[in-house]
Amino acid sequence: MLIELLEEYFQREEPHRERDYFYVSEVGKCPRQIFYTVRGFPRPPLDGQTARKLAVGEDAHRRIVQAMYGLGIVVAAEVPIPPGALFHGRADAVISLHGKNYVVEIKTVHPYNFEQMAIAPRRDHYLQLQLYLHYFQIPQGIILAENKATQELREFPVELDSPEVNRVLSEFQDLKELIFVRGELPPLPDKSNWEFDQCKYCPFTDFCRENVDRLPGVPLGPEAELEPLVLPENSVPERRTIGLFDEP
Ligand code: SF4
Fold first, then answer.
1. Number of folded domains in the chain?
2. Structural domain of residue 95, as residue ranges?
3. What atom of ligand 1 comes closest to residue 36's alpha carbon?
4. Which of the listed residues 35, 41, 195, 202 should we mutate to test ligand 1's pocket, taking the one with most ligand atoms within 8 A of CB?
């Protein structure tokens, strides 16, 4: 009765934006999912529960940044990457502690992920913070993780890792050429590097499953759904799966 109304209220379409850059949050994301998003492939609306989960994360960010303002340590909040970069994004905050500036990246995480992060941050969180350190020329930062269920906090001080930043920039420069310039479908991702099964949370799963055998490097747009490719023999890439264990 009421739940149906609320579900409808929270559910929303995600607008497609023309762009020629990546978001910091796309580091570690399946390149095919990025391709489908960038090219505006059809996707189901965001369901009410997922929209509410995202809102809980946004509320936690606001609460923590407000507390840091209360401590008088915030230098800047919601700090954007300078325009024209390969990546767009906003760091949650830059703070000053003991005479040094730190970029702070706040993450609200599922309890299972929180336990997985007992001694080290999640790799995609680490790489996202690395990009902010690189673009802001600040050599240190902190990943602050909050357990979504208990509000327990955990922090990971991180130093700028230039070789890793250069690797990510080079990888995404290649992806930019592939997706934005040549308009080609990226190869199937190496899922053995994934920390969770992204396919489980991907809005393009049905479409992708139908087109999983498409060759990489073939121009593809939404209209191509009507024109199935004829694949040469023995050209079908293997689709691997990994254990399903948690939400992103
Ligand atoms: S279904 Fe899996 S392989 Fe396909 S785009 Fe989504 S995350 Fe990538």
1. 1
2. 50-165
3. 5
4. 202
What is the per-residue pLDDT across 87-115, written as a single tens digit (0 to 9) for each? Answer: 999 999 999 999 999 999 999 999 999 99
What is the Å distance from ligand 1's center to 128 Cα?
Answer: 20
Q: Residue 205: CB within 6 Å of ligand 1?
A: yes
pLDDT confidence of residue 29: 93
Encode pLDDT of 171-195 as tens digits. Answer: 999 999 999 999 998 988 888 878 8
- Domain contains 233: no
CA distance 194 to 243: 10
Kindly state whether residue 77 falls inside one of the protein's structural domains: yes
Q: Is residue 146 part of a domain?
A: yes
CATH number at residue 118: 3.90.320.10
pTM of the model: 0.84
Question: CA distances (Å), 51 to each of 40, 44, 92, in order?
Answer: 20, 13, 20
Residue in the structure block whose two tokens are 């060759």: 215
CA 105 to CA 111: how far, in whole Å?
Answer: 18
Rounded to the nearest angstrom, the distance between the alpha carbon of 36 and the centre of ligand 1 is 9
Cα 27 to ligand 1 centroid, rounded to whole Å: 15
Atom of ligand 1 nearest to the CA of 201: 7
